[in-house]
């Protein structure tokens, strides 16, 4: 089986902030009902059970992608399981295909960084902190920047 890598939330944010790099990354959110309340802008939402039931079709569809990054809420079960299944399916097919990653800490780690909030959409601030006024703003030690 092909190895699976891990990307931190800041590493993924850096990739998504650069147009050329962002075009080469497919972020796959495998959360189920916990998808409500926000997600990474431009992600592909495929609940884990749906992905696992159709992994061959997704492997064929994403074969020409450069990177596929999976995540769930914490990336402890669903995200890594889906990443492992995709890597195994790709290894059984023709050579090539994307590098497969898991977002370390999942959606929870990504959304918790104020600097990354601009890369999110559909976020309910009541669920993720900061309050309505502060959502989308970054803070340093001196106040809002």
Automatic annotation (TrEMBL):
This is Uncharacterized protein. It comes from Pyropia yezoensis (Susabi-nori).
């Amino acid at each position: 089986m092909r190895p699976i890598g891990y990307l931190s939330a800041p590493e993924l944010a850096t990739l998504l902030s650069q147009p050329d790099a962002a075009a080469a990354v497919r972020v796959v959110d495998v959360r189920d009902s916990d998808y409500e309340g926000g997600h990474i802008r431009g992600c592909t939402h495929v609940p884990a059970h749906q992905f696992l039931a159709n992994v061959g079709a997704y492997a064929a569809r994403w074969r020409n992608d450069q990177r596929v990054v999976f995540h769930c809420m914490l990336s402890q079960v669903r995200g890594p399981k889906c990443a492992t299944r995709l890597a195994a399916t790709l290894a059984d097919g023709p050579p090539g295909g994307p590098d497969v990653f898991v977002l370390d800490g999942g959606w929870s780690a990504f959304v918790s960084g104020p600097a990354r909030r601009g890369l999110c959409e559909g976020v309910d601030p009541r669920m993720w902190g900061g309050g309505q006024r502060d959502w989308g703003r970054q803070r340093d030690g001196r106040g809002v920047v």
